[in-house]
Amino acid sequence: MPEDQNLNIYQRVKQKREDYQRYNFERLQEEALSTFFDLAQEHTSVDILYQICVIVPKVFFDVESNLYIVNPKTLKVEKVCSSETGLLSSKTEMEISVSEDVYETDDSWFFSIHGNRSLKPWLRIYGQTSVIGMFEIYPKDKIDNKCHFFFGKYTNRIGYNLHQKLLMKQNMEHIKFINQLVSDIEHNVISPNMYYKLSIRKLTKLLANYGAMLAKVRDTAMFCQGREDPVCKLLRSIHQEISDINQNFSEELRHLTKHYEHTSLFLETLFRRDHFEQGTYVLRRQPCNFRTEILDPLLERYRPIFEKKNIVINDNLEDIPDEEISLVVDKGLISQVFDNIFANAAKYTQEVENETGNRVKFIAYNRRILKDYFGEGTHGVRFSFFTTGQPIAEGEVKYLFDEGFRSSTAGSEHGTGHGLHFVRSVVEIHGGEVGCIPQRYGNEFHFTLPMKEQVPWLRAHA
């Protein structure tokens, strides 16, 4: 724990001790608070907490009470529990005033129930107020000044406990919805996506048949070799046109297949049920050739985008045979890491003037093996990506991979600050590291993954 935080907690504990000495609660009041805390911690149900709130004052002080809660969906005040009638099976909307302060009526005191301010953004309660309900105590003639002060503090305890349990209930509803959503995605998105795989297979077969027909036309045209009569000329022309069409169809089918494979990998990886059930990225590791299975397909997709923005691609991969690098990773998630980095490069690469006075705009990437980087016998494979542009300020570098953070160099480019955070999350769950190094003409982003197998290339160059 940081020293300043430790000191702050120490001061708060000391302050609380002084506060309770000043409160000077009677023994019965202390027992009532202890009973409330014990039972509130013992049960997780919101309905049971409602009953505890109204029964503790009745048992200890022989006063009646009603508990009112602001419904976050309707923004109406509902009576949820009473010391006289118990838990209400159907919530009843009540025309009572919701106030930040305590107020009185002919026979009752109304205390405002405030939630935990630090948890307020996570609970859907209306407006800017922290009031989540009202607590009514009656008859009023049983509440003297000291008892009035106690019930103010008691209501504060109700608020904090109630806020946490309402938040827990809301989170459980969110989890149920997310699980249902995952099932819907599997049923309505991922499973129907398999239809396209079958369609691609059918198209491939049709093109093969089309190619066989083209071969027959070609063979027939061979008999007309050297003849210039109209029929032979037409036959050769038809053969050439069909050949060109078939080649175009084959190229389009290749692009369609690549797009399908990328989309399917994306859907399976990010909407994997295990992620939602366990609340974290769940890896499905498999051996992967980064060059042929990840980099080349992505470069094929991003090359037209880079060319349109006049971004030159410099491939500086070391002369290390791909088969010498044995990495067992979650191919889908790591593909998304590379995808996010290339997407950022397309958005933020800028033209700069180099040391010779030339205007340049490029992305360069390379791969290096770092011997024993993660400890003896555990090497690292570092993938680095350099993009020209304005160097990121040193003070911002440590925040670049934080959720929602955007560098001041981002300018007017649209973004959410999530991409690099995703990169860090996936790399770290693989046991790796991420980093950024501002340089004279731009910035280098890199990530390093562990590689436990011995590498013949590395041993030969050690």
How would you describe this structure to a colleague?
The chain has 462 residues and is α+β, with helices and mostly antiparallel strands. The protein has 3 domains: 11-173, 2-Layer Sandwich (Beta-Lactamase); 184-270; 286-460, 2-Layer Sandwich (Heat Shock Protein 90). 51% of the residues lie in helices and 19% in strands. It has 11 helices and 15 strands. The protein has helices at 3-23, 27-42, 46-61, 145-222, 230-270, 273-278, 290-308, 331-348, 394-397, 419-429, 456-460; strands spanning 64-70, 77-82, 86-93, 103-104, 109-114, 131-138, 286-288, 312-315, 327-329, 352-353, 359-360, 362-370, 379-388, 433-439, 442-451. The strands form 4 sheets. The chain has a 6-stranded antiparallel sheet. Strand 4 (103-104) and strand 5 (109-114) form a beta hairpin. The longest helix has 78 residues, at 145-222. The radius of gyration is 34 Å and the shape is elongated. The two termini are 42 Å apart. 21% of the residues are buried.
Fold blueprint:
Elements (H helix, E strand, L loop, with lengths): L2 H21 L3 H16 L3 H16 L2 E7 L6 E6 L3 E8 L9 E2 L4 E6 L16 E8 L6 H78 L7 H41 L2 H6 L7 E3 L1 H19 L3 E4 L11 E3 L1 H18 L3 E2 L5 E2 L1 E9 L8 E10 L5 H4 L21 H11 L3 E7 L2 E10 L4 H5 L2
Parallel strand pairs: 8-12
Antiparallel strand pairs: 1-2, 1-6, 2-3, 4-5, 5-6, 7-9, 10-11, 12-13, 13-15, 14-15
List keywords for this structure.
single chain, 462 residues, alpha+beta, Beta-Lactamase, Heat Shock Protein 90, 3 domains, 6-stranded antiparallel sheet, 5-stranded mixed sheet, 11 helices
